[in-house]
Specification:
Length: 337
């Protein structure tokens, strides 16, 4: 007799073979790492500086498009394009912050999401520069040319290294998974280090009482701009990694939903907890992607809606029973205006 069909006996109609699908979970791990990076920038802004930034997707888009345009249109090497694109994203963050940081917190949130949407809509309409609704992809800039050619060569080399280390037949995304998470851990350690410095303590003071911080002689706008610039730099790398994962840069990849997903990660992990962001990113994407395999006899559209319902319900229950998140502390939830 053959093995029993487990999907027929499970009450949820859940296919079990996806548990051992390394290709699927490698892709999930890459997405979790990318959103962990985005949420780390938001943690610095929201959790430690008290700035409600809804423009994270804009930072990602500026970084990714700048990198691809520099390689495909300006002839930069891939490796040189990364720091230049990061500086462009930082410049965009400062451009966003200079006029809007003097606004009240709720107006600042509206301004950031509006500016992120301006970036996306500009990318949709600047056909000659960004490819418009087709985006930037392999084939731009000459036969066979692609902005990620240099990464593809390194990825192939890294697959050989992983095989030598004992990873039999590593997935094509395995090198990207390793690099993304090394960057996530490095960014987390760096942010934790600076957060314990006098600079980090000033950010906490601004979060808790901006007027008191100003009374002590601190230029709060300067510190907020620095916080926003660091978030923009981290967001640009998230944009790079997403472009490498998808092998394209497309306006639809940087919709406001990206920022809201990152906030979901932030809520799960907890405010003012960098390590919580990492755990929140893994949990969020495991739940969101793992529920693809729930059956109930539903079609693809209904399953997609059910997946978001499950994630939303989990977030609601978390906010009811543990509003500070998995690793957050209640005393860290008091934000200034």
């Amino acid at each position: 007799m053959g093995a029993p069909d487990l999907t027929a006996v499970l009450p949820l109609g859940l296919a079990l073979n996806f548990f051992t699908d390394t290709g699927f979970w490698t892709g999930v791990g890459v997405l979790a790492g990318i959103y962990a990076l985005v949420a780390l920038g938001l943690q610095l802004n929201v959790g430690f500086t008290g700035m409600t930034n809804f423009g994270a997707a804009g930072f990602m888009a500026v970084g990714a498009y700048s990198m691809a345009i520099l390689v495909l249109k300006a002839g930069f090497s891939f490796w040189l394009s990364l720091p230049v694109a990061m500086l462009i994203a930082i410049g965009f963050g400062l451009l966003v912050g200079l006029p809007s940081l003097r606004l009240r917190a709720d107006y600042f949130a509206i301004a950031t999401i509006a500016l992120a949407e301006i970036v996306r809509i500009f990318a949709q309409n600047a056909d000659s520069l960004t490819g418009g609704n087709q985006g930037l992809f392999c084939g731009e800039g000459g036969a066979g040319a692609c902005f990620n050619d240099a990464w593809t060569k390194l990825s192939t080399t890294m697959q050989g290294w992983l095989e030598n280390l004992g990873w039999t037949n590593p997935e094509s995304l395995a090198p990207l998974l390793v690099v993304v998470w090394l960057f996530v851990i490095g960014a987390t350690l760096g942010l934790r280090f600076v957060q314990k410095s006098p600079w980090g303590r000033v950010l906490r003071a601004i979060r808790e009482d901006q007027d008191a911080a100003e009374a002590l002689g601190k230029h709060t706008i300067v510190y907020k701009l620095q916080s926003l610039a660091i978030a923009a730099a981290i967001g640009s790398f998230a944009g790079f990694f997403l472009a490498l994962d998808l092998a394209t840069v497309h306006p639809l990849d940087y919709e406001p939903l990206v920022t809201f997903f990152a906030y979901g990660v932030l809520v799960l992990g907890g405010l003012a907890s960098y390590w919580g962001v990492l755990a929140g990113a893994v949990l969020f994407w495991v739940v969101l992607e793992g529920t693809r395999f729930i059956g109930f006899g539903l079609d693809v559209t209904q399953i997609a809606a059910l997946r978001f319902f499950i994630v939303g319900l989990a977030l609601i229950l978390l906010m009811v029973f543990r509003p500070q998140g998995m690793f957050g502390k209640r005393e860290e939830m008091v934000l200034g205006e």
